[in-house]
Design a protein that fits this description.
- The structure is a single chain.
- With 340 residues, the chain is an alpha/beta fold.
- It has one domain: Aldolase class I (TIM Barrel).
- Helix content is 41%, strand content 14%.
- Strands 1, 2, 3, 4, 5, 6, 7, 8, 9 and 10 form a ten-stranded parallel beta sheet that branches.
- Helix 10 links the parallel strand 8 and strand 9.
- Helix 8 runs parallel beside helix 9.
- It binds iron/sulfur cluster.
- The site of iron/sulfur cluster has 9 residues, from loops.
Length: 340
C-alpha cells in the first residue's frame, strides 16, 4: 500500500469540500486505482455525499408505458426493433394502470415517478393526447413528482410537456461521445446533448447519466462524467449493463461489485454536488448493495426497471431504514406502513 495514494485522495477530498473540482486527469487516475484503496475512496465519497447531499436520499420509480419495436438500435436495449429479444411489446398502458403504479410508488416513499416510453421523441397527435391524459391523471390522483423519458426533445416539445405538468425530464447520454458509435447508430450524441439543453432551457429539472459496463474504457467513463459536468446536470442516474439475450451486448460480462463501487465513488468526486442515483444493474453488487451510499450515491430507483426486474421493494426499504437514511419527501407514517 502506498501512503502517497492515501494522501492524494485526502487532498482531492479536501479540495472538493472547500468548493473546488477534481480534474479529468485526477478522475482517470482515481477510477483506475487498485481496489485495495476502495475503502479509503468510499470514506471520502461518503463525506462528500453527506456534506453536499445531507442524510436524505432520493427514491424514484418508473412505469414502462409503451414497450418494444422501437425504431432506434441502441445495442444494450431489449426494446429495440432491430434486435430479437423476449422484451414485451405493447402500446400505451391504460391511464388507471399508470395511476395505480404511481400511487404504489408513493406508498413506498418515492418522491418522483417516471413515465417512460420507447421511441425517439413525441411525434404524433396521438402521443401528445395520451401524454396529456397521463399527466392530468397523475396530477389529479397523486402528489408524486412527475418525470418522463420519451427520447429526443426539441424546444417546442420541451415547452409542451412542461405545460402539460411534467416537472423533470430524464434523458441519458448513455456513454462517452467517443464510444457512442458502439452504442447507437440511429441517432447522434449531439441529439442527446441538444435534448438535455432544450429541457433545461424550458425550465425542467434534467436527470441524465448513462450505462457503465458496455465495453467502454475507464477513461471513457470519466469522459461521460466530464460531459455531464459541462452540461451542468444535477441529477445523474448510473446504470450497470445487464446484458440482455438477443442484443449485440448479450455476451458482455457484468461489472464486478468492486468495479461498480469504484465507479460510483469516482462519479461522486467528479460531480460532488449532484444527485447520483443508482438504477439498473444494481443487483450485480450482490451482498454489497447497501454500500452504494457509502460510495457516494444519494438516490436509488426502486421497483422494476424497463424490461428487467428490480429487487424486492421491501428489501430496499429495509436497507434504507437499517442505514438510517431518510427518504426525501417521505413521511415516517408512510414508511411505517411499508417497512415491516
Ligand atoms: S433505449 Fe430507448 S430509444 Fe434506444 S432502443 Fe431502447 S427504447 Fe428505443
Amino acid at each position: 500500500m502506498d501512503n502517497n495514494i492515501y494522501q492524494r485522495i485526502d487532498k482531492i477530498t479536501q479540495r472538493l469540500l472547500d468548493g473546488g473540482e477534481m480534474s479529468g486527469a485526477e478522475g482517470r487516475w482515481m477510477i483506475a486505482l487498485d481496489h485495495d484503496y476502495l475503502p479509503w475512496l468510499m470514506a471520502g465519497a461518503d463525506r462528500l455525499r453527506k456534506t453536499f447531499r445531507g442524510s436524505e436520499v432520493e427514491v424514484c420509480a418508473i412505469a414502462n408505458v409503451r414497450s418494444g419495436n422501437c425504431s432506434e438500435d441502441c445495442s444494450f436495449c431489449g426494446q429495440s426493433g432491430h434486435h430479437k429479444t423476449a422484451a414485451p411489446k405493447y402500446g400505451y398502458i391504460k391511464n388507471e394502470s399508470l395511476v395505480k403504479q404511481a400511487q404504489q410508488a408513493r406508498e413506498w416513499g418515492a418522491s418522483d415517478f417516471g413515465v417512460v416510453s420507447k421511441g425517439w421523441g413525441v411525434r404524433s397527435d396521438k402521443e401528445r393526447t395520451q401524454l396529456k391524459e397521463y399527466f392530468n391523471e397523475l396530477k389529479d390522483h397523486s402528489d408524486i413528482g412527475r418525470c418522463a423519458s420519451l427520447g429526443a426533445l426539441d424546444r417546442e416539445s420541451a415547452d409542451m410537456l412542461k405545460n402539460m405538468g411534467m416537472e423533470n425530464y430524464h434523458h441519458n447520454l448513455e456513454s462517452a461521445e467517443s464510444f457512442f458509435d458502439k452504442v447507437c447508430t440511429t441517432h447522434t450524441y449531439q441529439e442527446n446533448i441538444d435534448t438535455i439543453r432544450h429541457a433545461q432551457d424550458a425550465g425542467l429539472r434534467v436527470c441524465a447519466g448513462g450505462i457503465l459496463g458496455m465495453g467502454e474504457s475507464l477513461d471513457q467513463r470519466i469522459e461521460l462524467a466530464e460531459t455531464l459536468r459541462r452540461l451542468n446536470v444535477k441529477s445523474v442516474p448510473l446504470n450497470f449493463l445487464n446484458p440482455i439475450e438477443g442484443t449485440p451486448m448479450a455476451s458482455l460480462k457484468p461489472m464486478q461489485p468492486q468495479e461498480i463501487l469504484q465507479a460510483i465513488c469516482t462519479f461522486r468526486y467528479m460531480l460532488p454536488k449532484a444527485e447520483i442515483r443508482i438504477a439498473g444493474g444494481r443487483h450485480f453488487l450482490g451482498d454489497m448493495q447497501s454500500m452504494i451510499f457509502m460510495a457516494g450515491a444519494s438516490g436509488v430507483m426502486i421497483g422494476n426497471y424497463l424490461t428487467t426486474q428490480g429487487r424486492q421493494v421491501q428489501d430496499d426499504l429495509k436497507m434504507l431504514a437499517d442505514l438510517k437514511l431518510t427518504i426525501r419527501g417521505d413521511t415516517q407514517q408512510r414508511r411505517a406502513v411499508t417497512v415491516q
